[in-house]
Amino acid sequence: MSRPNLFLVGAPKCGTSALHGFLAQHPDVWMSEPKEPHFFCTDVDAPFAIRDPERYEGLFAGARARVVGESSATYLISKVAAHRIRERYPEARIIAIVRNPLEMLPSLHSQKRVNGTEPYATFEAAWAAEARRRRGLEPALGAFPFYEDAARYSEQLERFFTAFPREQLHVIVFDDFKRDLPGVWERVLAFLELAPFTPNFKVVNRNKRIRSRALHKVLQPDSALHRLPKPLSTVLYKGLDRLNSAHERRAPLPPELQQELRARFEPEVARLSALLGRDLSHWLA
């Protein structure tokens, strides 16, 4: 049976889905379906997580490729995933992507709204509720219950740097993803020792909002839809999700909130810059 030897570990809303799709097109790569099994993050409340080892390994039973991978954006925030992956697959290679928190967090808020794990319609309101949620005064839902924690990249990466030899890790800065995607792709191929190949660089996971709350409830994990036999439930889910999604540009954050976020994440950006050996201070400009 084939074993996974590549893990795309997040962070969320940083291009993991796009990179998964690009890699899946390569003739020497096999990427899992579902994309995010969430198997190793047992400390994270991830939707549709696969916890059974036999079922997890069964995802890769049909793989016939040099590189076999999966992409769970929850692994980076998990406190146990790095160690668990290392314990089971010590030769695995890890790819992480980090993004300016001032861009990533509003994008994560939009995704949580779509997922039904964020009741506040605006990121400003959700950010203001963060302290109340930490005190247990309001529910903190989903795989990424606290926004600030999701952007603590330095401590998240440190767990992987501790668990794996540095040569088995590759960190991408999302700025490069936007500015020079072909160059990022070439470096990924070199890291994975894969032959040159040009995929279809299509845009995935654009910002979206839901059209109907009622239809959105039908799509939730605990609804009757997901009790239907597969692949019928999968086909219905994807079709209804497309029908209920509207893509749109995200409104800019208010200047005062931008300033608050810059001050909050200034120490984190400094730590991450030192860890990666790259100046990321422009994120706070």
UniProtKB/TrEMBL annotation:
GO terms for molecular function: sulfotransferase activity. InterPro entries: NST/OST, P-loop_NTPase, Sulfotransferase_dom. Signal peptide: none annotated. The keyword Manganese does not apply. Residues 4-195 form the Sulfotransferase domain. Pfam families: Sulfotransfer_1 (PF00685). Keywords: Glycoprotein, Transferase. It comes from the Bacteria. PANTHER family: BIFUNCTIONAL HEPARAN SULFATE N-DEACETYLASE_N-SULFOTRANSFERASE (PTHR10605:SF56), HEPARAN SULFATE SULFOTRANSFERASE (PTHR10605). This is Sulfotransferase. It comes from Truepera radiovictrix (strain DSM 17093 / CIP 108686 / LMG 22925 / RQ-24).
